[in-house]
Amino acid sequence: MDFIGANILSVSQFERADIERVFEVADTMGPYARREKVTRVLEGAILGNMFLEPSTRTRLSFGAAFNLLGGTVRETVGISASAMAKGESLYDTARVLSGYSDVICMRHPQEGSVAEFAAASRVPVVNGGDGANEHPTQALLDLYTISKELRGHGRTLDDFRIAMIGDLRYGRTVHSLCKLLCLFGSVQVVLVSPPELAMPEAVVEQLRAAGHRVTVTDQLETSISGVDIVYSTRIQEERFASQEEANLYRGRFRLNREIFTRYAQPNTVIMHPLPRDSRAEASELDTDLDEHPSLAIFRQTDNGLLVRMALFALLLGVEDKVDRYSREVCWHSRRNPA
Ligand code: CP
C-alpha cells in the first residue's frame, strides 16, 4: 500500500508486505523512543488527538510518538469536553480538526464512526479504537511483540500457537489481531471464552479460511498448556448493557502464577493489551506474575511507541529522513533498566 496520506482504519487494508514495512521502520526507532537521540523530522507538523472514550496507552503513545519525531500534539478528550456535546456532527468536526492538523488519531465508542470521520477529513486519520470493532494499531504492536518474542523460541509468525482468553466478543484488539494473523502461514489459535463472549463467527471463519487451526473452548487450564503465546483480555464492561451483566463474567478466567506454573510451558509468553482489571473480583492477569520473565505486557506497551512512530513516519513520508534530522541528547535520564 502507499502509506503517504493513507487512513489507517482497519487491519484489513494491509498486505503482509505492509506489515513487514511497518516493522522494519519500527526497528529503527529504538534510539529515539529511548531518548538516546532526538529528531526534528516532523518539526512543524501537528497531530490532532481526538479521544472520545477513556484511554491511557493509545492516546499517550500516539502523542509521545509524534513528539519524539519532532511534531506537536493538540488534544480533545471526552465527548463532554468537545463541541459534539452541543450536537456537532462527525462531518463538521472532521472538517474543522483537519484544518488544524496534519494527521488525526481518533477513538470513538461507536463502530464505524472513525471511518465516517475519516471520509470527511482532509488529512490522514488513524483509528485508535471504534467501539467493539477494531483497534488496528494495537494489533500491529501486538504482532510486532509476538514476532520479537518468538525470535528466541525458534518459532516465527508463520508457525506458532496462541491462546486468546476472555471477552473475545467485545474485545476489539483480538478481532484486529486475528485478522492480521490471516496474513501469515500456519497458526494454531485457541479461543477461550464463555460461550456468550465468544469470538464473532465471521472472525473465526476468516482464520479457518486462511488455513489456521482454530479451537473454541471455555477451559483455561488445558488451553494454555501447549501454546507459545497466552493473550489475556479484560471483560469490556463498557460494552455491556449493565454492570450486573458484566459481573457475570468478571474473574471467570484468572491467569496467576500458580495456574501458569502448573499448566503452561515456562517460556510461554504472557500478553495483554491492557488495561488489565486489577480489582480483586476481576483480576484476569494477576500481579503475582509481574516479575515473571515471560510477562511481556510492558514490552508490548514499549513496542507500541516504536510501531506508532513508524506509522507516523510512513504516513508523512519521512521514514528515510529520521536520522538526517537527528542529534544526540545532551541531558541524562535516571531510567532504570526494564
Ligand atoms: N490497549 C489500549 O487500547 O489501552 P488504552 O485503552 O489505555 O488506550
Q: In terms of per-residue confidence, which ranges show pLDDT below 50 for 5 or more consecutive residues?
A: none
Give helix and strand order, one letter per element, not per position. HHEEHEHEHEHEHEHEHEHHEHE
Please give the count of helices. 12
Strand order of the largest sheet: 8-7-6-9-10
Structural class label: alpha/beta
Main sheet overview: 5 strands, parallel
Overall spatial form: globular
Radius of gyration: 20 Å
Please give a quick description of this structure:
The protein is α/β, with parallel strands linked by helices and 338 residues long.
Descriptive report:
The protein has 338 residues and is an alpha/beta fold. The chain has helices at residues 16-27, 30-33, 57-68, 90-100, 113-120, 136-151, 172-181, 201-209, 220-223, 243-247, 257-263, 297-315, and strands at 37-39, 46-51, 72-77, 103-108, 125-130, 159-165, 186-192, 213-217, 229-232, 269-271, 326-328. The chain has a 5-stranded parallel beta sheet, covered by helices on one side. A 4-stranded parallel beta sheet has the order 3-2-4-5, sandwiched between helices. It has a two-stranded antiparallel sheet with strand order 1-11. Strand 6, helix 7 (172-181) and strand 7 form a beta-alpha-beta unit. The longest helix is centred in the C-terminal third of the chain and has 19 residues, at 297-315. The model has no long low-confidence stretch (mean pLDDT 95). Bound molecules: phosphoric acid mono(formamide)ester. Phosphoric acid mono(formamide)ester is lined by residues 55-58, 129, 135, 138, 273-275.
